[in-house]
């Protein structure tokens, strides 16, 4: 039997926007698979992620949208803001649907019914779909190694139904399912599920990475790496939700940077060839978690001991990435040292010393 | 909020499913014109960077740095030539007020703007033909008296406007202060010669050895030319009014430099030289004295410490490196010696701050010091020589009386440069004279055409506050330093002390520019828009568009604009009750056009009975 040549797109990796002293984004593709006129909230993080992802993927792309914000808010009255083929699927079947699309193209190419390059098949699942309801089907698609990219846009809650807690909701995060009160002052008592690491550990043949909207070029490059990888790839992207996190809309990108700088969202890549984590990403500065928490209304109820607990969590993440911790961050992990850090000005001073 | 009882106008009812148009890149998904959610609209509004504002001639500094970044050197040179006739000269001699104003100075180190300007100037010198062309001749003749910075600038701008310009120069060579006041080791003569050639290439006639008042009179100028620009500068040195100042060996700063610059110097300096004065000319004199053979040079200033000296700190540093001594808090009260200088009598002195007769208070109680020298160079400022000028146009400061447009009364005479700026509070710098010459040339043009002069200045928004920009995008980077000749070798030669930037260095230094308040096509707004409703066809400054039909006013682009060019404009003014939605929607017809009409009529509706 003759081997079938599968033509792959192999998208080029973009340059860093910081060229020496100069800040200048690399030239981006001119096509726009995601167009305006959708009903996401102003400053929507997942929407920013959608835009960057589709920009990186280009026109030869098929998008799969399981139920979530990016389905509910974007596709109504038989109208969507997608300029490329897009299909909705149920929240639990994100992985199986995507696997089906990939398998269909594989079959069509095998039978000679599809002549062009293999399309970029991207599943855009929210964290509800990716970490709770659709976890099994996504794990199955990854395990069977279908040539697709599954993205979890992680807004840390079920947002389109009105902010309910998901397994990705961070410790201390207020949602309608985890309200703070006299019995549970910290609102959510559990730390979030380490979803990306779970996928990397469980499916070591896949390309797995975490990214944030605060680093657009890094995010777009990870999307391209995932698409260029022959086989399944998984990407978890931090996308702030203005309604759920309760912050001022202009801060969307800023939060994406801060969450990495505070160590709450470690950025790494899993290399399927060497079977090793790549922890070489370093943000411009390290900050105490209070810098990140103080911008968001959902953490407004936290006490010093809760902030210290989150700082301890962040410090563990830094250690895991092999970063030497500054004294100020170790100090901040003790609630005693946080008692006087009530005001924003005092928290800012800690950032200076870091 | 209940919608019960709300009347939905026909034009807002939703079309039926199945007939909705497909989304497209140009039109978006026009079923949901989300622009009407917006309370604040982002607009691109370029502000004035502080460097452009501080520059005496308002060079478009941010503009040419941005062009250098992108390797468009010729465009950058053409841009600089709009305001500055000789970037190769100011790139060497300017005291760079732009660098003092640079916002990067508050962040790490100011941009080395002067060095980039010199790079561009040298590039322009190497061109066979200049990028600037003379304007279409308009048949009018203008005389420019003096070929220093102000005269040079005025003549250059007038030639570009199409005037037939004649420069009258007193000295045998054109150049004025550029030639006579600036030593060769700062500005080599061949650089200036090339710039003068450029003037001749523009069709300007230069008449050397013509002195106003001697070879040509006020009435001649009035009769022979349509207009005249007086840029005669300050030619007469001030004295310190010390006893015995007429002795042999007492020299004056500017004539000392001028004679060396013109090549007519007959001065032989002794081993020990004292320089009186603490300004930039005094520093140049002290450094020139070393190169003229002096062994020990001492600078005597009234100022109590180096910080108070009205001189450029960099030049002061370079001077000290070359081995000049400083003696502070002294004033020269007498020159001692038998016909020739042998020593100076120094009294301790300080500035009293008085603005009347003499601002210097000499302490006569303390016994005087004797300071042995062979020569003394007095460099305490200059004044104008205006014997030829009608008395009605003289001021009590010894300068020319002009109105705010540089005009002398109702005549067609104009004045520019040091001769009008002395004592006006403006520091006397080459670049300020160039700016003055440029403005006067434009005013002259308007008056000869009979156009009204602009009496009101447009308010400009200069961006000084780093908080108006997003500093997270700019990592700290050290300034690229210009090489200097080592002090031991340079103090005896006329070679240029400060070395030029290489191409790579110039690009590297220009890359540090923040482009304060001005779009530099970094694409960041385009990339972070969640809609995405920021579009562009060509990636270039100012060619970004915002689709206001869809912009929800989230302000992410405003927050993330690195340069602070994007601004938020409220759509609804809650204080005055003014609805600006119509302006937001006026761009496209259709749904929004009608909606805007409805909104415009809101005010005419009768008040609701609640």
- The number of helical segments of chain B is 21
The total strand number of chain B stands at 22
- Relevant CATH superfamily of chain A: Thiamin diphosphate (ThDP)-binding fold, Pyr/PP domains
Percent strand of chain A: 5-15%
Examine the coordinates and then state which fold CATH places here, giving the name of the CATH topology of chain A: Rossmann fold
Q: What do the pLDDT scores of chain A average to?
A: 91
Percent helix of chain A, as a range, is 25-40%
Give, in spatial order, the strands making up the sheet with the most strands of chain B. Answer: 4-3-2-5-17
Instruction: Give the radius of gyration of chain A.
Output: 21 Å
Indicate the low-confidence ranges of chain A by residue numbers. Answer: none
Distance between the termini of chain B: 16 Å
Largest interface: A-B, 48 and 54 residues
Looking at the overall shape, the CATH architecture of chain A is: 3-Layer(aba) Sandwich
Strand order of the largest sheet of chain A: 4-3-5-6-8-7-9-10
Level-1 CATH class name of the largest domain in chain B: Alpha Beta
CATH fold-level assignment of the largest domain in chain B = FAD/NAD(P)-binding domain
Shape of chain B: globular
Strand content of chain B: 5-15%
Give a structural overview.
The complex is a heterodimer of chains A (354) and B (610). With 354 residues, chain A is of the alpha/beta class. Helix content of chain A is 36%, strand content 13%. In chain A, helix 2 links the parallel strand 3 (61-66) and strand 4 (86-89). Chain B has 610 residues and is α/β, with parallel strands linked by helices. Chain B folds into four domains: 20-46 and 520-604, 2-Layer Sandwich (Alpha-Beta Plaits), CATH 3.30.70; 50-130 and 465-510, Fumarate Reductase Iron-sulfur Protein, Chain B, domain 2; 141-235 and 384-449, FAD/NAD(P)-binding domain, CATH 3.50.50; 242-256 and 268-380, FAD/NAD(P)-binding domain. In chain B, helix 2 (61-69) runs antiparallel to helix 3 (73-81) and helix 11 crosses helix 12 (280-291). Chain B is globular. Chain B starts with 39 loop residues before the first strand and ends in a 10-residue tail after the last helix. At the A-B interface, strand 1, strand 2, helix 1 and helix 9 of A face helix 18 and helix 19 of B.
């Amino acid at each position: 039997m003759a081997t079938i040549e599968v033509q792959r797109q192999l998208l080029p990796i973009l340059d860093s926007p910081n060229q020496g002293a100069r800040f200048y984004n690399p030239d981006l593709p001119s096509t726009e698979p995601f167009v305006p006129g959708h009903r996401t909230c102003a400053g929507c993080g997942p929407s920013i992620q959608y835009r960057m992802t589709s920009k990186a993927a280009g026109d030869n792309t098929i998008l799969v949208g399981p139920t979530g914000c990016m389905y509910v808010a974007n596709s109504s009255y038989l109208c969507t803001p997608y300029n490329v083929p897009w299909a909705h699927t149920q929240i639990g079947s994100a992985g199986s649907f995507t696997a089906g699309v990939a398998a269909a193209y594989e079959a069509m190419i095998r039978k000679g019914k599809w002549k062009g390059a293999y399309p970029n098949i991207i599943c855009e699942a929210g964290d509800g779909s990716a970490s709770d309801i659709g976890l099994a089907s996504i794990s199955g698609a990854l395990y069977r190694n279908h040539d697709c990219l599954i993205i979890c846009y992680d807004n840390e809650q079920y947002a389109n139904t009105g902010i309910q807690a998901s397994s990705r909701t961070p410790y201390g995060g207020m949602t309608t399912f985890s309200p703070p009160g006299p019995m549970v002052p910290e609102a959510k008592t559990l730390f979030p599920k380490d979803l990306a690491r779970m996928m990397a550990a469980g499916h070591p043949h896949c390309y797995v990475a975490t990214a944030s909207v605060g680093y657009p070029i890094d995010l777009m490059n990870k999307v391209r790496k995932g698409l260029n990888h022959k086989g399944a790839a998984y990407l978890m992207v931090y996308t702030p939700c203005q309604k759920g996190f309760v912050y001022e809309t202009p801060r969307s990108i800023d939060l994406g940077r801060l969450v990495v700088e505070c160590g709450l969202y470690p950025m790494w890549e899993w290399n399927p060839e060497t079977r090793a984590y790549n922890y070489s990403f370093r943000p411009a500065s390290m900050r105490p978690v209070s810098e990140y928490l103080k911008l968001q209304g959902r953490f407004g109820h936290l006490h010093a001991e809760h902030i210290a607990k989150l700082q301890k969590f962040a410090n563990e993440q830094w250690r895991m990435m092999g970063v030497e911790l500054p004294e100020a961050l170790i100090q901040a992990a003790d609630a005693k040292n946080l008692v006087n850090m009530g005001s924003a000005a005092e928290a800012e001073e800690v950032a200076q010393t870091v | 909020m209940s919608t019960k009882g709300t009347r939905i106008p026909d034009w807002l009812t939703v079309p039926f499913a199945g007939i909705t148009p497909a989304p497209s890149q140009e039109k978006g998904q026009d079923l949901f014109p989300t622009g009407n959610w917006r309370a604040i609209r982002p607009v691109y509004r370029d502000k004035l960077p502080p460097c452009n504002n501080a520059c005496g001639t308002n060079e478009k500094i941010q503009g040419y740095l941005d062009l250098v970044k992108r390797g468009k050197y010729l465009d950058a040179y053409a841009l600089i030539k709009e305001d500055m006739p000789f970037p190769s000269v100011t790139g060497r001699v300017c005291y760079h007020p732009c660098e003092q104003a640079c916002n990067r100075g508050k962040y790490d180190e100011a941009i080395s703007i002067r060095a980039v300007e010199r790079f561009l100037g040298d590039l322009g010198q190497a061109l066979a033909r200049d990028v600037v062309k003379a304007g279409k001749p308009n048949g009018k003749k203008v005389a420019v008296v003096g070929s220093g910075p102000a005269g040079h600038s005025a003549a250059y701008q007038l030639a570009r406007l199409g005037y037939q310009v004649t420069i009258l120069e007193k000295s045998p060579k054109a150049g004025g202060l550029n030639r006579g006041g600036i030593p060769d080791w700062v500005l080599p003569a061949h650089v200036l010669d090339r710039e003068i050639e450029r003037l001749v290439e523009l069709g300007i006639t230069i008449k050397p050895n013509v002195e106003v008042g001697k070879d040509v009179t006020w009435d001649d100028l009035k009769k022979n030319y349509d207009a005249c620009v007086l840029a005669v500068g300050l030619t007469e040195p001030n004295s310190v009014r010390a006893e015995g100042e007429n002795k042999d060996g007492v020299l004056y700063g500017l004539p000392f430099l001028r004679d060396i610059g013109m090549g007519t110097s007959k001065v032989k300096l002794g081993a020990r030289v004292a320089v009186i004065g603490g300004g930039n000319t005094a520093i140049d004199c002290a450094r020139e004295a070393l190169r003229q053979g002096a062994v020990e040079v001492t600078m005597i200033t009234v100022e109590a410490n180096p910080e108070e000296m009205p001189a450029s700190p960099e030049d002061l540093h370079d001077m000290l490196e070359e081995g000049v001594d400083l003696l502070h808090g002294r004033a020269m009260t007498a020159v001692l010696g038998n016909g020739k200088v042998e020593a100076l009598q120094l009294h301790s002195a300080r500035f009293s701050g008085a603005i009347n007769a003499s601002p210097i208070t000499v302490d006569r109680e303390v016994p005087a010091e004797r300071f042995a020298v062979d020569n003394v160079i007095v460099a305490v400022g200059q004044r104008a020589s205006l014997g030829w000028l009608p008395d009605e146009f003289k001021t009590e400061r010894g300068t020319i009386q002009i109105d705010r447009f540089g005009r002398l009364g109702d005549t067609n005479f104009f004045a520019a440069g040091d001769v009008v700026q002395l004592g006006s509070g403006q520091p006397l710098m080459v670049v300020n004279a160039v700016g003055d010459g440029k403005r006067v040339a434009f005013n002259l043009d308007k008056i000869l055409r009979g156009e009204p002069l602009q009496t009101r200045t447009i308010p400009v928004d200069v961006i000084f506050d780093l908080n108006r920009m997003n500093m997270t995008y700019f990592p700290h980077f050290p300034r690229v330093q210009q090489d200097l000749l080592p002090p031991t070798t340079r103090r005896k030669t006329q070679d240029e002390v400060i070395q030029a930037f290489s191409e790579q260095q110039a690009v590297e230094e220009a890359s540090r520019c923040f482009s304060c308040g001005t779009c530099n096509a970094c694409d960041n707004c385009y990339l972070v828009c969640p809609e995405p409703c920021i579009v562009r066809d060509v990636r270039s400054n100012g060619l970004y568009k915002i689709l206001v039909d869809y912009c929800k006013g989230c302000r992410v682009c405003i927050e993330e604009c690195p340069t602070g060019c994007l601004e938020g404009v409220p759509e609804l003014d809650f204080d005055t009750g003014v609805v600006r939605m119509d302006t937001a929607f006026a761009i496209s017809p259709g749904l929004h056009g009608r909606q805007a009409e409805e909104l415009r009529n809101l005010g005419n509706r009768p008040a609701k009975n609640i």
